[in-house]
Amino acid sequence: MSQTIPVALVQMNSGLGAKDNLDTIEARVAEARRAGAVYVLTPEMSVVFARNRAGLQAEAERWENNGAIARLAGIARENGVFLHIGSLAIALEGGRFANRSVLFDPEGEIVSRYDKIHLFDADIDGENGYRESATYAGGDTAVVADIVPFKLGISICYDLRFPALYRTLATAGAQVIVVPSAFTVPTGEAHWHVLLQARAIETGCFILAAAQGGSHENGRSTYGHSLIVSPWGEVIAEADGAEPGLVVAELDLDAVAAARQRVPALANERAFTLAPGPLPFASDLKTQAGN
Questions:
Q1: Is residue 116 annotated as part of the catalytic site, yes or no?
Q2: Residue-range domains of the chain with CATH
């Protein structure tokens, strides 16, 4: 008998202050619950989408006695849903922050948390360099949460470009993997859909990607297009552009086993080594090319 799970993604245009963003989350979670969702995912940096380090220092709290966490726990409890905050900034010792995903159960208890592993540090010709590691401390532990009736792998935004993480989550039992994000418009237009579909196909998992969208108070513009991808790589639900809103769909968990049976890439994986030095048979290849 097929088992379907109603889920919702919140697409946001988060601002600089925590209160307004928390109000938005509260309203959207109530809307999602009315639509039947039992699991609700928000984007990366849902609670504060700061302009700079000073903005984070003014708004982001430490993990202990965190006011935003307390309110979010109450929202989960009041609506009786698994509430998954895609990420929020948590102040750490030493002045940096964790980009942390937090999952609450329907009683408002924290059942899992994950710190974004991969940080975007890049020097781009003709543009200013960007050092996410100057502000954030990267995590070092992959996480699969068991939130009956499915196992949930967790990632955040730039993690999407590192397929080994997703394979690790899938082989650890994940049936659904989340990618809460704040993709820029140029990279979103170029890579968002194809990367999410690739991760779904490679792992045989549902991919849930709640996104930031639109022009933000911090001066950034994000791509939106929150979407849900099936284990076969099909987009089964998507937000219309960058406007804030809600995406609701039902996940048929039988589709995970079906996709993995049709293409058993996880089961067929083999260990291998990289040959040192010249490629094997390189001299033969050169001889053939010369004939």
A1: yes
A2: 4-290 (3.60.110.10)
Active-site residue (options: 59, 116, 151, 205): 116
| Catalytic site includes residue 286 | no
203-213, pLDDT tens digit by residue? 999 999 999 99
pTM for the model: 0.94
Q: Which of 59, 61, 151, 157 is catalytic?
A: 157
Q: Catalytic residue at 44?
A: yes
Secondary structure of the chain in HEC code, one letter for each residue: CCCEEEEEEEEECCCCCHHHHHHHHHHHHHHHHHCCCCEEECCCCCCCCCCCHHHHHHHCCCCCCCHHHHHHHHHHHHHCCEEEEEEEEEECCCCCEEEEEEEECCCCCEEEEEECCCCCEECCCCCCCEEHHHCECCCCCCCEEECCCCEEEECCHHHHHCHHHHHHHHHCCCCEEECCECCEHHHHHHHHHHHHHHHHHHHCCEEEECEEEEECCCCCEEECCCEEECCCCCEEEECCCCCCEEEEEEEECHHHHHHHHHCCHHHHCCCCCCCCCCCCCHHHHHHHHHC
Choosing from 44, 59, 61, 238, which is the catalytic residue? Answer: 44
157-171 pLDDT, tens digit each: 999 999 999 999 999
